[in-house]
Write a structure and sequence with these properties.
The chain is mainly beta and 71 residues long. It has a single domain, classed as OB fold (Dihydrolipoamide Acetyltransferase, E2P) (Beta Barrel). It is 0% helix and 54% strand. The chain has no helices and 8 strands. Strand 4 and strand 5 form a beta hairpin. The N and C termini lie close together (6 Å).
Length: 71
């Protein structure tokens, strides 16, 4: 079952700690977003395999933008 992880707020992508093809489990941190000088971890809620990472460090995302797609 495909999972789409979306941005919950306007932020910039600070760092990415994952890559396409790796398996992740609930609780794994995929990336860190930064907003108003606060670091916000993007955490997986269910296990899967990363199929696509739609952003790069330095990108600015808006609420609802796709960050990661998991299979």
């Amino acid at each position: 079952m495909e999972q789409t992880i979306r941005a919950e707020m306007v932020a910039s992508v600070h760092s990415i700690m994952s890559e396409v093809g790796i398996s992740v489990v609930a609780g794994d941190t995929l990336m860190i977003l930064e907003s108003m000088k606060m670091e916000i971890p993007v955490v997986v809620e269910a296990p899967g395999i990363i199929r696509e990472i739609s952003v790069q460090p330095g990108d600015v995302v808006r609420e609802g933008d796709v960050l990661v797609i998991l299979d």
